[in-house]
Amino acid sequence: RNNNPVLMLSSNLGLPGACCPPQVQWSSTKLVDDVKLQANVSAVALVPGSDVLFLDAPTFFWVVLPDGRTAPSSLQVMEGRGGDNNLALRAGQSVGKPVQIRWWLSLYHFPHQTIYEALHGEGEGSLGLYSNSLPFVGDWEVTRFPADARVRIHVTAQNPKTGALSPVPVMSGVIFRRLCPPNCHECSSKGVRGRCYRCEPGFAKVAGRCEACASGCLDCANAGPGRCDAGMCKNGTGVRQQDASCIPCAGGVNCQSCDEDAAGHSSSSSSSVQVLPCRKCSPGHGLLPNGDGCRSCEDDHCLSCSSLGECEVCSSGFTLTPSEDSDNKTATAEASPIRCRSCAANCSNCNKLGPGNCDPGKCNEGFSLSATGQCAVCSLHCLSCTSAGPGNCDVGHCKADYGLQGGKGCSKCSVDHCEACDEEIDRCEVCKEGYGLTPEKTCEACAVSCKRCTEIGSCAECDIGFGLSQGRCLACADQCLRCTAGGPGRCDVGHCAEGWISVQASGSTNASEVVCHRNSSRSGDFLT
User: What values do phi and psi take at 368, rounded to 5?
Assistant: First the structure.
């Protein structure tokens, strides 16, 4: 008798959106002289019950079978066989763990809100998420995955208390996998290994394969494996000419460059040298004699200074000049120290005209140089009027939502989400971040659940109820209203829905990494 079986999520349960076959992601590692393919598989199921504290995690069983082979039953999957009772290409099992189902659904591009609402259905025969059943996930690795073969992964799960198996296994789509050589970013499609066209950073191409650069090196395309190209060592290190390796700079991270030149000019060109003299310090620091390190500049507005701390290059909006008491010095007195003095208001550079003024073309955004050497404001809603002059606006330089349309001032665009409409007020030329231009010169949104994005398909800020992960918006923990700090699959403390409370996620040592649990009189509840 199949008492209280675990239910694999699938369209057999009446779920929409082609929910939810096993999901596969790929990784690879090098083993001796061979390449092994590794598939990371994830599948979800519902376990009967309403409190995770009193549920044992289900066991997920899986097999890898050639596409077209007879589909197995749950019992056959558990035994590692196909529907014809022959052994599977690969087989195994994995213990599940609780999962935030909306996060999992959004991670794998399912219509998460529609499926989540379907899972919450109440009444006889319904799935009753969080009232009659709880979501669990099985995650496992399939090493030495069959290459150059069309296969599917079949998964079932077992209730550990009753031994009941899911009535029907779930099945992945057809998988056909070829792998580039290790550390290769792009390769040909011929053969399992392929021939590499472009290596990952930190590796060089040799005979169609990728070999590591020197330790701490970002690129060795010219120098070759085990070495480093000039200027490509990580911050605070430089290239030693003797062996093209990366070793520390004197001054550490405050040293911007310490590569030896082709003649090996440093304290020594021997491979025994462990620290290279600094050749250029980072902004706000000056180079010590003999490249012995970097010291902070004395002037707060200085970008580069001498070894004594005297400024040589000022930051934006300031210019080098003797200190104000220089007029009181005699001709034989010690020279006045050089300091950074402010330019005119709203000016970025005044090296030619001096402090209190502004050089031509150097006024800040929205300002232009007047006849008196000061920065005067452009027309309303204008970002630049360098050519047109104060009170006007240069073509293509109106603020977002505005366009020039041949006039001197900026008029508001009539197209929603438009950033520039210089030609016609009702035809957009550049859309705002998060929107793309249509053939009709209107703007359409770029991504689901994304509030603001830097480019089409790459989000910078998500809608409420979603967290940002590598440019994508993924759902927060179930019953969570905000996860700006916690991130996808988690919840910000104090932002669970009414009737739910924040509890620390199991397996986490961070007290602020929480999910939501139905409110009760118990304390110390944990979910993941």
Answer: -145, 155
